[in-house]
Every structure is written in structure tokens, then in C-alpha cells.
Amino acid sequence: MQTAKKKTSKVDPRRARRLRRRNGATMAELADRYELYQMSVQDPEQDVRFLVQAWQEIYGEDDEPHHLREDFCGTALLATHWALRGPDCTADGVDLDPDCLDWGTRHNLSQLGDDQQQIQLHQEDIRVELPRKADVRCAQNFSWQILQDRSELLDYFRSARESLSERGIFVLDMFGGSEAVEEMQEEREVSDDITYIWDQVCFHPVTGHTDCAIHFQFADGSEIENAFTYTWRLYTPPEVRDILQEAGFSEVRFYFETFDDDGDGTGIFEPTETGEACEGWLAYVVAIP
Ligand SMILES: C[S@@+](CC[C@H](N)C(=O)[O-])C[C@H]1O[C@@H](n2cnc3c(N)ncnc32)[C@H](O)[C@@H]1O
To answer: Which numbered atom of ligand 1 lies nearest the CA of 140?
Structure first.
């Protein structure tokens, strides 16, 4: 997670005027919000690396997982990178929203050329049963926290366990830390022209309810406010471990991102039984049937 900063405008007014004159339309009007999302918050190579490594730690390095089920798959960028590993790597992607599935088919699955049939996209609720058992089933970018009732999350975890192959794992990601429960914004430059803003709009300590949003600001001064909005319950690691165990998983491992000397995330995740009490942490949770 990035260091928190207050929202400030980085717009150079002369450059903004020049950019507007040149293009006619504003940069916000010309932007594609799915493309912005993918470049700002996703790192599919790292996710795939982690998923394969976590599976091999459990089932051995002589083999590798072949079939992925990506829940809340959005544009199926992760499923695409999974399939790009080789022709015997297949994926099911599940998402309710036909727009992002369509966008993902045109922009991501198309990278697979003739092998697009390696990936099946399903416009369904994540609790849908699919015929193919998964070696790895995952729910990334915290989307599973949309299930705000404990009983709903338990049902989802139970269905995830049932859907795994004999040598399967279920992987979630989580964020937390002292800043995760603050109503605040943090911003990050994703290119010279684009600033990504993560907005923790509200947090209710009693329920864990949080509303979050993603905004984008552009060098010409234009903005996309609320490009994406989320209503979640911010679960804690011990709650998640308890619910996964109640759903029948025999072991639950937490991998926290490590920090470099400047306090920046390294992109390397290591197993831990304690975690670290810091401002912001990111973790993968690996559940073993
Ligand atoms: C934050 S996006 C996640 C995109 C991608 N997985 C990632 O890693 O960034 C959340 C997605 O969850 C989908 N979604 C929300 N509730 C869902 C449900 N009950 N079943 C299936 N998809 C759902 C939304 O349509 C949206 O595309």
C-alpha cells in the first residue's frame, strides 16, 4: 500500500490549456476506465507468480497447477495471464457485470489468439457451481468483502472448498493496518499524465462497513470521479481464518508483503503467523482443503 497523502492538484494550468486545445475533448472524456483500472491497480504477473508458488509449496515443485477459477474476474486480466503460461493452462472467470466481461474478451482474451477457448467467462454470481474443479480458485483485489454478512461469506467459502480439485487451493487477498480504518485519500501517479486516487470515503468501526472509491485526475485538469465504487465490510485476518476453518479448510496461511528500507512494499510476500502492526499492509490468504 502506498503512503497516505492528502488529495492535491498536480495540474500545471498552462500545460492543461495546451492539452485541451490540442485534443478538443478532455483527457477524462477520452480515457477508458477499464484500461485505467488495469494499469493502476492490477499486477497479473505477480499474482500468477504467487498463485503458482503457493500451490507448489503445498503440492511440490515437480508439477504445477493447470486450472484457475477467477471469481470477481472483472476484465479477466489475471485469467488471461494464467492462460498465457501455456496451452494446458485453462481458466474459468466469473463476474456479474456483462460490460467488463465483454471488454475483457475484446482487450485481454484476444491476446490468446486462437487459444481463447482456454478461458470460459461466466456472467454469474460467484457462488455458481461450475463443472470443472479448480486447482487454484481466487478472489483478488478485495472484492470478496462485498459479502458483508458473515453467513454469506461462510456460504461462499464452503462453495469454494467444494469446487477445488484433489490438489487445490483457495486464495484471497486482504488489506489492513491503522490507515485502513481511516477516512482518507491517497494518491499515486500512474504516468506523467494520470493520477490515481484511492478514497476511503467512510468506515464504521462497529460493523466494519466501508465505502471506497477510485477517482482519476489528468494533466489537463479533467477528472473521472467515482470511476469505481465499493461497499465492503473490512474483515480482519483472524475473522477470515475462523470462517475459512468453519467452511472446512484444514489450514489457512497468511503471506504479508515485505517492505524495503524506505518502507515501500517490495512485491514479495512471505508467510507470517503475526503480521506487522503498520500503517498499511497487503496480504494473500491461502486456504488448504
Ligand atoms: C474490484 S472488481 C475486481 C476486478 C479484478 N478481479 C481485480 O483483481 O482487480 C470487482 C468485480 O466484482 C464483480 N462482482 C460484484 N459482486 C459480484 C457477485 N456477487 N458475483 C460475481 N461478480 C461480482 C463486479 O461486477 C466487478 O467486476
So the answer is: 8
Cell numbers that stand for 102 in this block: 465483454
Within 6 A (CB) of ligand 1 lie: 41-42, 72-74, 94-97, 100, 125-126, 140-141, 143, 146
Residue with CA closest to ligand 1 atom 20: 125
Complete edge-to-edge strand list for the sheet that includes strand 134-139: 119-123, 90-95, 67-71, 134-139, 164-176, 281-288, 251-259, 265-272
- Convert the pLDDT of each residue in 194-237 to its tens digit: 999 999 999 999 999 999 999 999 999 999 999 999 999 999 99
Cβ(23)–Cβ(222) below 8 Å: no
As a whole number of angstroms, the distance between CA 244 and CA 289 comes to 10
The dihedral formed by the CA atoms of 142, 148, 153 and 156, expressed in degrees to the nearest 10: -70
pLDDT tens for 135-167 read 999 999 999 999 999 999 999 999 999 999 999
Measuring CA to CA, which residue among 150, 144, 151 is closest to residue 172? Answer: 144
- The residue written with cell numbers 477467477 in the block is 70
User: For 23-72, how does the pLDDT look when each residue is reduced to its tens digit (9 = 90+)?
Assistant: 578 999 999 999 999 999 999 999 999 999 999 999 999 999 999 999 99
Q: From 36, 72, 147, give the residue whose CB has the most ligand 1 atoms within 8 Å, as the site to mutate.
A: 72
* For the CA of 72, the nearest atom of ligand 1: 12
143 alpha carbon to ligand 1 midpoint, in Å?
6
CA distances from 121 to 16, 60, 69, 130, 188 (A): 40, 29, 10, 11, 31
Please check whether residue 37 is in contact with residue 103, taking contact to mean a CB–CB distance below 8 angstroms. no
Q: Tell me the C-alpha distance between 86 and 89, whole Å.
A: 6
Pull the grid cell for residue 187.
494518491
pTM of the model: 0.92
CB 244 within 8 A of CB 285: yes
